[in-house]
Structure formats: structure tokens, C-alpha cells
Amino acid sequence: MIKPILSKLVSASVLCAIAMSSQVAQADAIDDIKKSGVLKVAVKADYKPYGFRDPSGAIIGIEPELAKDVADRLGVKVEYVPVVSSNRMQFLEQGKVDLMIATMTDKPDRRKVVSIVDPNYYSSGTNILAPAKYGFKKWEDLKGKPVCGIQGAFYNKKTGKEYGAQIVAFKGTAEAYAALKGGNCVAFVYDDSAIVAKTKDPAWEGYEMPLKTIDDAPWGLAVKLGETKFHELMSDQIKSWHKSGRILELEKKWGVDNTPFALKMHEEYK
Amino acid sequence: MESFFDWFRILYDNTGINLPFLYDSYDRARMWNGFLMTIKLSVVALFFSVIIGIIGAWLQNSPLKWTRRIVNGYIQIFRNTPPLVQLYFFYFAIGALLPKVSNGYGGEVPILGGFAWAAISLSFFAGAFNVEIFRSGMEAVPKSMTEAAEALGFSRLQIYKDITLPLAFRVVLPALNNNLVNLVKTTTLAYAIAVPEMLYESNQIWSDNVNVTEMMIFLLLAYFFLVGVLVWGMNRWERSLKIPGFGT
Questions:
Q1: Contact indicator for B145, B246 with CB cutoff of 8 Å
Q2: ipTM score
Q3: Of A63, A173, B26, B31, most Cβ neighbours within 10 A?
Q4: Three-state secondary structure string covering A157-183
Q5: Cα dihedral A90→A95→A99→A101 (10° resolution)
Q6: pTM above 0.80, yes or no
Q7: Domains in chain B and their CATH numbers?
């Protein structure tokens, strides 16, 4: 009895969905951005040097500069929207931003939610921050020693299981850094991109990133699903970044050693 | 035994109910160590908090004004601040000020680690409540009892040890029971300073396996079991201490 009503409801909602999705497909992001004169970009504000705040509160860093390049190409102004890892894809999905460049690792399940642009613009892996006095040379040197980590990071298990380190995991990076300084652990296992910046920091003198990076995974910048024209434009933009050596130049500017990935991509597209 | 554990792998393959702490030997060892750590931390904190309660209640009745003030100050500080804040304070603030010892491979570690600070902090936290609980029990002992003991020439310590405390103990057991149950549950906070207890290990396992639901259900049952054992023991103790005609 209720079935016919239900099926009508379902078909009605399907129709609605089709109508709405076709509308989205017709509207073009590039036209909208040009019309409003502003490109809204989701970036990190707590990930030095990829996206962080200067003393005045403005967001600066490598990724904001990349976003600025895109805005210049479109001939519009840029607006930075600070995001964190847990909400960055939602910002894009809900249309609060047009573009996301927020240190996101490229994963297949993420590709279902947002439109990650090929080729990848950057890459990072896992390494440790440790006092130089310990002289760690390989991952096996960590065996049996306490190593700080972040609760929930996927590389904790690997470091513990394969290399025998005792993982001491904290809730956030601030606690882990404090524990490392306090001597509660001999090293901190984290993203190499973030560690590189720390080793340049005068407050962390005598600390180094001694091991070979493992689990190197590419980062993807993303546009909303279905924005094919904008996707193509971004793909071309990334190629031109790699071609011109812009990423290498930005790494140098923000005090990061040129990463093997950026060097390789520059060679490939040169 | 292996075939028993393998059954859970089959369960996962067939139903999607993922219990890696049973079929994966690495996760099993982690979970077991976490379980033992929770028991160890609970037992240590239970023991010292009761000792602190007994001694604190004695000192609270001291004729010396400053002893009383110090005990009351201790109670105010530890009872009126959140246990998580205390843990962070001890581990990061006090821990950094203490002398360091060599770790055996060229570096220095703080003299007290996460477990020690968790045990100290939780003992003091629950101890502050226990002092007040014991005080309530002592006030329930009729004044005429202590007066009679004084008339018989008992010293202040003897009166406390042999007369007030044993009687007060029977009165405070239900309240003490409550506080100790709370203490066992509060040990989960130690995961904030990376003490590898049950919640910490579960968190690691569910991050690696994305099986949050299963781990949550398991954790709930595990604590229900642990606290159940404690409550059962305390109730038995309460019954065995019962004096006919005394108390309620």
C-alpha cells in the first residue's frame, strides 16, 4: 500500500537530483570566479612552512603562494580560507572554496569525494626528528627506544612493528615536540616535510632528520567534482609549476631543502 | 589456541566484524599489555589513594594549626582541578624541572616517566576525595567513644588507629567504593600522556584498522568487567566487616 507512494517519492527525488546535478555541471567555476573577482582557496594555517600565519595573522607559506599564482593567471584576487585536515574536503564539497591546496595526501578514497588534479604537485613521507648526538643512521637504530608520535598516525604501527621502536603517542604535535625536548623520547616520527622546517628553526638547534624517508606519498590539490574545465586549467598550472621550477624556487624561499619529488618532476617536465 | 584466534579472522572475512586484537598477534600483544597496564595503574593508584585518605584524615584532626592548613590546602588544590589538567601539569611542567638520568645510549631522560606521573597524579586526585570521605566516617563515630577511650588513657594515635578508624571504615565503605570505581575509570585519562593503557592501545588499533565501532564496544565491556570485579570485591568486604547493631 505504501509502496506506490514510496516509489513515486523515490523517482521524484531522483529526478530532482538529476536536475540539480545537470545545473551544477552547466555552471562553470572559472566564469563564476572571474565574475566575482575572487578566488577562494582552502589552505592550512598551522603547517609551517606550507601554510601558516605571520605575526600579523596573515596566512603565508608555499601553498598560499601557489594559490596566488592561480589567482594571477585568472586575473582575480585571492582569498585564503584556513582549513584543517578533518574539514578540508567538506569546504570544497560545500562550495565554500573553489580550490584546495592543503597538504592533502592523494588517496583513492579521497578521489571519490573531490576532484584531485594530476599530476601531483608535491610529496612527503615519514621521517624522524632526533637530537644529532644520538647519531641515528637507519630505522633499525630505533629498536627498543621510546619514540614520540601522534595518536592515530598510520606510521606508528610500522615504526613499532617493523623497527621495534616503543611508540609514545600524544594527541597533538605541540605535546609531542614538548616530550621530545623534555627527553621523554629519543625521536619524533612525523611527516618529513614538517620536520625539515623544524631543523631550520633556531629553537631546534642540534636536532636533525637523519634517516631515509619512508612511505613517500604524493599530495594532491583538488577542485570540486565535475568542474572539468577548472580541473584542466589546474592540471596545466601544475605542469607549468614543475616546468619552470617554481616549486623548487618556493622550497628554497621558505627554507626547505629541495625534495627528491620536486626535483624529479622538474626533470620530467623541463 | 591459534585456531581459536583464527576463527575471528574468518568472522571478519565473513561478517565484517573486525577484532584484530584477537587474530593479529601484534595487536593482541598490544591489547593484552594495555589491559595489564590498566590493572597495574588502577591497583597502584587505589592503594596509594586509600593510604593518603587514611593519613590525611588523621592529620586533618591534628592539634597543629599548620598541619591542618596544609592538608586542607592539598584537598582544595587536587579536588578542585580537573584530573587531565593535573596530569599535563605533572608530566610537562613538573617533569621538566626535575633532574634527569642517563638513558644508556648517550641521552638523558626525566627521572619519572609517564606511568609514574599518572600513578602519582591519580593517587593524589583520588586521595583528596578519600580524605574527605574518611573524615565523614570519623564524624559519624559517636563522640562518647573517643571520650571513653581518652578516659582509659589511650593516646591520640591509638584512638585513631584502634577505635575511630575501624568504626569509621565500616561507615565510609559505600562512599569509598564510589570513589574507587571512579578512580579506575579515570585511569583512561593517562592516555593523554602516552601511558599505554587500554584506551591508548585501542586508539592505536582503531586508527590502524578503522574499526572504531568494534573497539568502542569492546572497551565498554572491558571496563564494565574490570569495575564489576572491583565492586564485587568491595561488596564482599563490606559484608564481612559488618558488625551487628552498628551503623545503618
A1: no
A2: 0.73
A3: A63
A4: HHHHHCCCCEEEEECCHHHHHHHHHCC
A5: -20
A6: no
A7: 41-240 (1.10.3720.10)
Q: State percent of chain B over pLDDT 90.
A: 59
Distance from CA of A172 to the nearest CA of B (A): 10
Please tell me the distance from the alpha carbon of residue A20 to that of residue A25, in angstroms, as a whole number. 9
DSSP H or E stretch at residue A124: strand A122-131
Mean pLDDT for chain B overall? 90
Angle between helices B25-60 and B65-79 (to 10 degrees): 150
CA-closest candidate to residue A41, choices A4, A77, A86: A77
User: B85 and chain A: CB distance < 8 Å anywhere?
Assistant: no
Q: pLDDT digit string (tens) for A176-188?
A: 998 998 888 999 9
Distance CA A96, CA A93 (A): 8
Which of the 8 DSSP states describes residue A54? -
- Mean pLDDT for B72-93 is 93
Written as nine digits, the cell of B64 is 597543629
Confidence band, pLDDT 50/70/90 cuts, at residue A12: low
Is residue A4 scored above 70 in pLDDT?
A: no
Q: How many angstroms separate the CA atoms of A37 and A33, rounded? A: 6
The residue of chain B nearest to residue A180, with distances taken between CA atoms, is: B109
Collect all residues of chain B within an 8 Å Cβ-Cβ radius of residue A175. Answer: 92
